[in-house]
Specification:
The chain has 277 residues and is α+β, with helices and mostly antiparallel strands. The chain is built from six helices and 16 strands.
């Protein structure tokens, strides 16, 4: 069930009380959405999120009617009226057919950021055999979301790694990278959601001369990787301690440290250069 934090949310350009937030709207159908992290009252990597949000409509055979200015205005208003400088915002839109009214909303959602200890010691994850439809599109399906949440709670892990035909593609709410000798390795682009943080990792590797390659990550080859890490809006760059049922990884790895430092530099630069326009 969706939960709306703080005093207000935005629905179709209207400011509404959180008391009027109706979670039943999300019980059926598919929704294009984005989760955007707010730091110091500024949305992080906002243009990247808006671009992916609009591109995701094409996977539902729709053309996005939203432009950058409209979405930025809604997010700016939401941050301002709630007087919140840190948290996660979800933006979501849905339209079944072209002749139906388009619905858009933005609100603050509950979020969980890893502790300093987790960044140092890594987190535990588990494998889960499921394939996401349209992996390149960020489309929410309530049944999938509930299934994932239930399994994470049952196994008491930080994240689930999705597997299909014996290969690991991505996390249920993150992307995953492995360290293989001097290489950073990840699944092919066509099989995953192209996360914003994932794209930043690609840029960091290029800028720092870190060798990166895409290939199928076979489950039976997991013991041959030395380290692994998750990427995402909330976890940023987060080492994995162990995949349940497999030998533990080393969380002390120079490549992970270099990628993590590069990502923190990108955050600082984005914050420094951000303007609402």
């Amino acid at each position: 069930m969706e939960e709306c934090l703080h005093m207000y949310f935005i629905e179709n350009d209207e400011i509404k009380s959180s008391c009027d937030f109706n979670s039943e709207k999300f019980e059926a159908g598919s929704f294009v959405y984005e989760v955007i992290r707010v730091l110091n009252g500024k949305p992080l990597f906002l243009n990247d999120h808006i671009k992916r949000f609009n591109e995701s409509f094409s996977f539902d055979d729709l053309v996005s009617p939203f432009n950058n200015k409209q979405i930025r205005h809604s997010i700016k208003t939401l941050i301002s009226i709630n007087k919140i400088d840190t948290g996660n915002i979800k933006i979501m839109a849905y339209s079944r057919k072209a002749n139906q009214a388009l619905w858009f909303a933005a609100w603050f959602i509950p979020c969980y950021y890893p502790s300093n200890e987790m960044y140092l010691q890594g987190v535990d994850v588990a494998l889960f055999d499921v394939q996401r439809p349209n992996p390149n599109a960020k489309i929410q399906r309530q049944d999938y979301k509930q299934m994932i949440s239930s399994q994470i709670s049952k196994l008491n892990v930080f994240e689930l790694l999705l597997i299909h035909n014996g290969t690991i593609t991505e996390g249920s709410r993150s992307n995953i990278f492995f360290i293989e000798d001097k290489y950073v390795v990840t699944a092919p682009e066509s099989t995953v959601l192209k996360g914003i943080t994932r794209d930043k990792v690609y840029n960091i590797c290029f800028e720092k001369g870190i060798m990166l390659k895409e290939k199928e990550i076979l489950v039976d080859q997991l013991p041959y990787y030395q380290s692994a890490f998750l990427t995402g809006t909330s976890p940023k760059v987060l080492p994995i301690r162990q995949i349940v049922g497999f030998p533990p990884f080393s969380t002390k790895n120079v490549l992970i440290d270099s990628v993590s430092a590069g990502y923190e530099d990108m955050i600082r630069l984005d914050q420094k250069s951000f303007v609402w326009e």
